[in-house]
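=== RUN LOG ===
request id: a7f3
mode: sequence -> structure
chains: 1
length: 206
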Amino acid sequence: MTDVAENQQQPADGAVGKQLAFDPNVKHPLYRGWTLWFDSQLTSGKRPGGNDWGANIKEVYSFHSVEDFWRLYNNITLPSQLQIGCSYNLFKEGIEPKWEDPSNAKGGKWTLIIQKTKGLLDKLWLWLILGCIGEMLEGMEDVCGIVVNVRKGQDKLCIWTKDAENQDAVVKMGLSIKKALELPDQFPVGYQGHFQKNSRLNKYEV
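=== RESULT ===
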């Protein structure tokens, strides 16, 4: 029995396995920095309007490495556990999660409606974050940020982009999002410009 156990521990080619040393002082940098914002705009019972919109959006933390991202993620509340009406906004560093920000002014957003299925919102939000900070989505240069909205009946995931008129790039991104989140082909995903006249109509669909 001892000989068998010893043989099982050896690599098939006879090579000696190596264990990489862990150094807590070494960080693995991301391609770019990201900032998490928290929005509690509905906790007062009604949505602010006019100049008051966005008044409750607070900057939480900026990170530039894999390790700092996980330190943040492991110490904040999961989206599914937030109060109804709250949102997380994860945007490229230097871009505020507001339509009026110069990077967002000509853009729009892909919107995914997420049903209240246990664990689904948290899983898709994490996958979407990893797709963005890992630069794995199509057209990452045009991505401004991502948002998770916690609502009473159903939740939303949104991906904000810079240029709503660049149909080819926007549609490719939408398809990339569905692939990254492993969504079925029939899952509806619509895109609206931030300032389009009828916000209820989709400008593009995938």
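=== NOTES ===
The domain at 28-49+56-96+105-196 is CATH 3.30.760.10 (RNA Cap, Translation Initiation Factor Eif4e).
The chain has one domain: 28-49+56-96+105-196.
=== END ===
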